[in-house]
Amino acid sequence: MSEGRADKKVVILIVEDDREIVTHLEALLIGEGFGARVAFTRQRALEILEQEEIDLVLLDLMLPDGSGYSLCTAVKKKENLPVIMLTAMDDEASVVTGFDLGADDYVIKPFRPMELMSRIRNVLRHGRSSQHVCTFSDIRIDLRRASVTKDGREIPLSALEYRLLLIFAGHQGEILGRNRLLEEIWDVAGDFVNDNTLTVYIKR
């Protein structure tokens, strides 16, 4: 089981209370070159996510101390990590709820090992890279950490500057008028930013 990130392996958190399934998943992941961490409860999963760097969560929905749905919501709200739900709940309502809460994929038990590995690689390849990191020329925006680097050097930004950058990044090639920007930006007190303040921040 991977305890650190020195080897730069992708680390997957297995949240599952069935020990037989956990043993199978661990062996499968390690055999495919991934690192694996295990949480048998919702609470332990939250502790691991707080303390360690995790790249993807394999999540059962029926946990002894709570619902996997609520854990998915917490993960997406705080970390926005890729989540693959791995569960025996195969009814349409459960699947729809999972996707509505932000799951990147939904796999029904019993699962086919190589298909699961393919789904994991697909989510990591397409999901995380597009959701968490945006690159524009020499500028890199890490959405998970709310950080911006240029040529590898971190650029300190205020909350408003960061918000402006995200707006511009999301509307590349478009002409954004002042009124449009003023409608989208709020200052930390919850008031609209005035025109003069906007001018100062854009000139920076």
Structural write-up:
Keywords: DNA-binding, Phosphoprotein, Transcription, Transcription regulation. It comes from Candidatus Anaerobutyricum stercoripullorum. One of its GO terms (molecular function) is phosphorelay response regulator activity. This is Stage 0 sporulation protein A homolog. InterPro entries: CheY-like_superfamily, OmpR/PhoB-type_DNA-bd, Sig_transdc_resp-reg_receiver, WalR-like, WH-like_DNA-bd_sf. This protein is an alpha/beta fold and about 200 residues long. The protein folds into 2 domains: about 10-130, Rossmann fold (3-Layer(aba) Sandwich), CATH 3.40.50; about 135-204, Winged helix-like DNA-binding domain superfamily/Winged helix DNA-binding domain (Arc Repressor Mutant, subunit A), CATH 1.10.10. The chain is about 45% helix and about 20% strand. It is built from 8 helices and 11 strands. The chain has helices at about 20-30, 40-50, 70-80, 90-100, 115-130, 160-170, 180-185, 195-204; strands at about 10-15, 35-40, 55-60, 60-65, 65, 85, 105-110, 135, 140, 145-150, 155. Strands 2-1-3-6-7 form a 5-stranded parallel sheet, with helices on both faces. A 4-stranded antiparallel sheet has the order 8-9-10-11. It is elongated, with a radius of gyration of 20 Å. Residues about 1-5 and about 185-190 have low confidence and may be disordered.
